[in-house]
Write a structure and sequence with these properties.
four-stranded antiparallel β-sheet; Alpha-Beta Plaits; homodimer
Chain lengths: ~90, ~90
């Protein structure tokens, strides 16, 4: 099992699709940030789906680590509400 | 020394200021993402400056880890050019 932080900068025309893909595998924690535990296999599936979707200046950064314990997270300001609308 | 990944979701009226603050301490790697090595002392200075700037629904997530070796980064799509304009 891995722990992943995924951050994307996607053109408006594709962001809803990327969001939908990411939501199948990870937890939405900020407008363009997903986190979560994931198997190597599922991470590969996620990356393949994203590679088919990304175009032009889109950019997705995936930080992978062996366990969430490798990171401490601090939030400044309001954390995302469930009713967050894109 | 620490390694930090900072991701922000900031209102348009404040994003230039947050960008300016972050650039003093970290490297700009994607539209709303900064990374870099930083001392505990400088991280505290950075966080204090950001806390004074953040309002309303702004949100900044700071992932800190002891070393960059704790994780691997993969980029899908185009990585940010130096001439990137906000």
């Amino acid at each position: 099992m891995l722990y992943v932080i995924l951050v994307y900068d996607i053109d408006e025309t594709r962001v809803a699709k990327v969001l939908k893909i990411c939501r199948k595998y990870l937890t939405w924690v900020q407008r363009s940030v997903f986190e979560g535990e994931i198997t190597e296999g599922n991470l590969e599936l996620l990356l393949n789906e994203l590679r088919k979707t990304v175009r032009d200046k889109d950019n997705i950064m995936i930080y992978r680590t062996s366990t969430k314990k490798n990171f401490k997270v601090e939030v400044i300001g309001e954390s995302m509400k469930d009713d967050f609308i894109l």
